[in-house]
């Protein structure tokens, strides 16, 4: 059978978006066909070019695609050209197996669906819920395993040989091999051997670090266990069926498995029989019991995203199993990389590469420098020819010039800076797994914090509650003021929660646990079989049975229970205040509801509303089988419950240090906006004196609202009258703006004024003077974010669906852009959205995907973002950020390049400090290595002009004694202890960096010329020169240049090393001082003394013989003078004339008021 007969004759084909892809998706595929003739041609080209063509193909997949493949119709295709959502490309083989056509990309198999004429990620068809309830065992497990693979997240183990081949064939290494080849032809074989050996050693060290990181991932991914499996042909509920114990890696989708206590799930499953309590810390970051119930008997498909209360996820742990039959039964749904845990690991294995300009800018500078050096080469070419060199030496010197200017070992020393940064952080309890992030951390100017578990502690304390009396609230009751705990509200507190007692310990959401402890009730360990749980008060005169429980769902923002007390039946509901106000009878909502809610939330308390509904026994029987919505209607609002989530002990101090460094700080949380704002205020992200403008969206009225959250003062808020005013102003008033160019903050004020005056905008809380003074900060809710996003042009929404934000415009920087003539409503909307994202300090009620979207938007606004969080709901944002930080014990550590051993956010400061130090170290390594190379080239060209060159051992001393210790010392430099406002300027094309390096090169080169001129002013007898067309490796000119270079190297280190404000002072850098002292002693020794070994080993001439000691003394004085010019000129001239202008941008302190705009 022709395998291509299964495919249509089409060139355009699509991939169906699937939830099992997670965040690592395919955006486009193209069928291509391998051309066999091109393979033969490719082999010939590789042989002819000495395998350079093979190397080029290994560097560029697009070259492989264009040379070896051609576009094809699907029925004739052999491969697929894949574009992923991070814009990377893969070539995947199109495989025909039995009746399946598929390809594999990034650990997932994509099969062709002939009915839809599209490819889709392979996923087991769970059928309908009713069919699953009649499931029997898998009859053909081997066939299923061939189709779906093993139930195992197999993280590839790095192979040393493969890694070395890949790394040592990178472009810079090829340049290194070319250099070594040229040096061998120039009789410098020992230097070449040492260069290759050093590269191999450092590459092996990097491999060991990579292997260590990969092993940690493998340990995290490992979930092997023994599982009870039924593979018979009878339905699972039949009596007498036999389960067989087997390795979890042999499970296949469709298997019927038994769930046991304390078991860690090895795959994603659907619960079909029995009840479970699960610890889903690997998903949520919070170790709380989550109840799981069997699927209903309905003709509906099962979704792992929608039916979470029926689904079990890999890596989660069973706390308590309550079987209906012999075991708690589940059906295996997803295994390996298709599971939710597998999706997380796929995102870690294939992270989105964030562009970083350090390398590209460095290459640009090297190209410019190479042009200058080649000009010098051709200027000296007539002199070199006249000396008598052979054509081969002249030819080799031309290519040798390029290898001098582009130091082949540069990537090795830059990677040393990254590696040492990870080692320093590890000593401080911060573990890094991605060395490349060390440099990126040095450019971070924006830090985004999750709230709960990051800024605050995970635990929560009871604060008090406030009851309704008629149409108003009673006085707030602090927890210490409660004496009698048998009131009606305590019956609700004791039952409407998700707390369970397991092995004598209360487990659940910390809020529910603290609430239950507050009631002094206890949980009956042996409740009747027809109730979910039973609680009894201290005096044992109140017994409450929970008949049915609807667990808390974040989408619904509430939980509810049906409770029986003797002959009385109740529905108790607890949830967010806003949702409770929406569910409850409006005549039971206190008239001072909003005022009291604001008062409590502005104290930083976590607020819940609660209510009840009394029902009859008949209603109870009906509601037991009714929908949740029917159960949660006609609720009588009772009051508000306040819980206190305290800041971590050092959060305010760390935030203060980050504020002093002008780092832009933001909170991105799923919590209540007012609570999040108050948390941001308490820790210092929002100054205490500043009110906040909260941008929200009212779904009922379909309007944006702009609410002013004033600074909390009880007397002020109790007396403040709040008003809702609709402001409508014509848009053409925007035309009255001044022609002057304003800074971004002032432009933001213009945009906010437009927001306040647009027809569909409602400002519900307005200050007395009706203006936006400098006192205001901004906050944005998830609903408002969704509103702005939904209003974007269609093409922007399509880009969002492909996980891309490309196409957003930059914020307005020029007032003329706001004019109606130059900016339409759609463009203004996009720019307004961008400006609000840039200026908001708080993003609240944000879903996990929204957190990631906010960060991506900030990145488009040229922000370098660090995200720190602790839960799995932060993983997407951490992965999206330029640098992600988490805590080692949290599940977000899966996706974080950095994880802290403790739960303090001081790890952020440590990462920023060391990142800036590492980036400055890398910059100085670049400057010193390139500068030293040019100095060496200048000296070599001067000696070449007189038929001489340095010998093998001289080059070794120059490279590995004169340069390597300094490069190593620079990379070992420790960070400063103070985080400052300045940022390293990583761009080598920046004027400040160009000036520093160019000044060192020019002055040192002029110094070598001065040394040469003094040498040339004297008469030298029997001076070696060209012999048989080759240079001599000894002589007085090369001896003079060799000695002088040692001084210039030392002075260059002092000049280039920048301690303030990123690194330790050079005088405290003990390793650097030791190397400088050793080098200085060696230099003085060879300058002023002479022994025979100097000639035998280093081929240094005794210049004192012909001109006495005065020659060396004068040369030394000239060299010191030039060295001082290098040092002092850099410090007092260059760095002051060309300062590093990379600083954090301070926020504007003054803002014009709205009233001034309107006037």
UniProtKB/TrEMBL annotation:
<keyword id="KW-1278">Translocase</keyword>
<dbReference type="InterPro" id="IPR006544">
    <property type="entry name" value="P-type_TPase_V"/>
</dbReference>
<dbReference type="GO" id="GO:0016020">
    <property type="term" value="C:membrane"/>
</dbReference>
<feature type="transmembrane region" description="Helical">
    <location>
        <begin position="1042"/>
        <end position="1059"/>
    </location>
</feature>
<keyword id="KW-0175">Coiled coil</keyword>
<dbReference type="Pfam" id="PF00122">
    <property type="entry name" value="E1-E2_ATPase"/>
</dbReference>
<dbReference type="InterPro" id="IPR018303">
    <property type="entry name" value="ATPase_P-typ_P_site"/>
</dbReference>
<feature type="transmembrane region" description="Helical">
    <location>
        <begin position="1071"/>
        <end position="1090"/>
    </location>
</feature>
<dbReference type="GO" id="GO:0019829">
    <property type="term" value="F:ATPase-coupled monoatomic cation transmembrane transporter activity"/>
</dbReference>
<keyword id="KW-0547">Nucleotide-binding</keyword>
<keyword id="KW-0067">ATP-binding</keyword>
<dbReference type="InterPro" id="IPR044492">
    <property type="entry name" value="P_typ_ATPase_HD_dom"/>
</dbReference>
<feature type="domain" description="P-type ATPase A">
    <location>
        <begin position="227"/>
        <end position="348"/>
    </location>
</feature>
<dbReference type="GO" id="GO:0046872">
    <property type="term" value="F:metal ion binding"/>
</dbReference>
<dbReference type="InterPro" id="IPR059000">
    <property type="entry name" value="ATPase_P-type_domA"/>
</dbReference>
<feature type="transmembrane region" description="Helical">
    <location>
        <begin position="365"/>
        <end position="395"/>
    </location>
</feature>
<dbReference type="GO" id="GO:0016887">
    <property type="term" value="F:ATP hydrolysis activity"/>
</dbReference>
<keyword id="KW-1133">Transmembrane helix</keyword>
<feature type="transmembrane region" description="Helical">
    <location>
        <begin position="994"/>
        <end position="1015"/>
    </location>
</feature>
<dbReference type="Pfam" id="PF13246">
    <property type="entry name" value="Cation_ATPase"/>
</dbReference>
<dbReference type="InterPro" id="IPR001757">
    <property type="entry name" value="P_typ_ATPase"/>
</dbReference>
<protein>
    <recommendedName>
        <fullName>P-type ATPase A domain-containing protein</fullName>
    </recommendedName>
</protein>
<dbReference type="GO" id="GO:0005524">
    <property type="term" value="F:ATP binding"/>
</dbReference>
<feature type="transmembrane region" description="Helical">
    <location>
        <begin position="190"/>
        <end position="210"/>
    </location>
</feature>
<feature type="transmembrane region" description="Helical">
    <location>
        <begin position="1110"/>
        <end position="1129"/>
    </location>
</feature>
<dbReference type="GO" id="GO:0140358">
    <property type="term" value="F:P-type transmembrane transporter activity"/>
</dbReference>
<keyword id="KW-0460">Magnesium</keyword>
<keyword id="KW-0479">Metal-binding</keyword>
<keyword id="KW-0472">Membrane</keyword>
<feature type="coiled-coil region">
    <location>
        <begin position="727"/>
        <end position="754"/>
    </location>
</feature>
<keyword id="KW-0812">Transmembrane</keyword>
<feature type="transmembrane region" description="Helical">
    <location>
        <begin position="39"/>
        <end position="60"/>
    </location>
</feature>
<feature type="transmembrane region" description="Helical">
    <location>
        <begin position="160"/>
        <end position="184"/>
    </location>
</feature>
<keyword id="KW-0597">Phosphoprotein</keyword>
